[in-house]
Amino acid sequence: MADFHADSLPPELLATGISLKLQHYPEVLSPEVLTAEQADLWFEAHTENFCAIGGARLAALQQMAEHYPISLHGVGASLAGPEPLNPQHLQWVRALVQQIKPALISEHAVWSAFDQAYFADLLPMPRSELALQQLCSKVQQYQEAVARPILLENPTHYLRLKQQMPEPAFMTELCRRTGCGLLLDITNLYLSQNNCAEDARQYLDQIPPQLVGELHIAGYSADPVEGDALLIDSHDHPPNQAVLQLLDYALQRFGARPVLLEWDDQIPTLQELLRQRARVAKVLQPYQEVLHAAG
């Protein structure tokens, strides 16, 4: 299996995608709803929502995959957790990948399960050599199951803890040892900067461009008690101007990449989601033009 390199990204994916939501299926599967402005649209589907044998939901995703590029984004593997990967989960993911043939596959560099209990959050890990070794082993196991390199997403931080390794160095070494790539969540970096005084631009400056396969962007919320001192990765608002500016900085460094507008709560209509996608697409457009001029 070849290591991930950004040069291997499908050209049709170097555009702005949106989260795939159940309530939007009928419209998305009606071609007249989408205009020429959405000609380069792609969708991200949460892997665990489709790990089933048959059924209407999986059939709809298969139908969509015939018309749009699909990225599968896992949230349940708990790759950074202390326990072995769930073999049944890996079998489900492998079967889904074989059926859908997604353009990208990604997961999180976090833990979300312990002692057979699953938590409703994606929790950051200690960044030590031992933790890195354990994470690398599980990433390799996951990649062997899907027979291709995957992308790993950086977590959001709400507390500043003592760590043995800076996160950019940790993630870069993870890629070197396993051949995976990175999904950089720009909003996560912005929130970690606010919550823990972690410099988001300095983080981006330390990541080798060839490792970056996708960028995420989303809205966030202030904690109801702490207010703006603690920002929550809620995915329930449009991204604000500060997050869009950080996205632009990332694109200056890495060049055109697949950019996903995430939206997982208080989900708007498809037309409003596409309108917000257009805001993000305007940030990406100059970098697409540079790529096309060079090609």
From TrEMBL:
Pfam families: MbnB_TglH_ChrH. SUPFAM superfamilies: Xylose isomerase-like (SSF51658). InterPro entries: MbnB/TglH/ChrH (IPR007801), Xyl_isomerase-like_sf (IPR036237). This is Uncharacterized protein. It comes from Alkalimonas amylolytica. The lineage of its organism: Bacteria, Pseudomonadati, Pseudomonadota, Gammaproteobacteria, Alkalimonas.
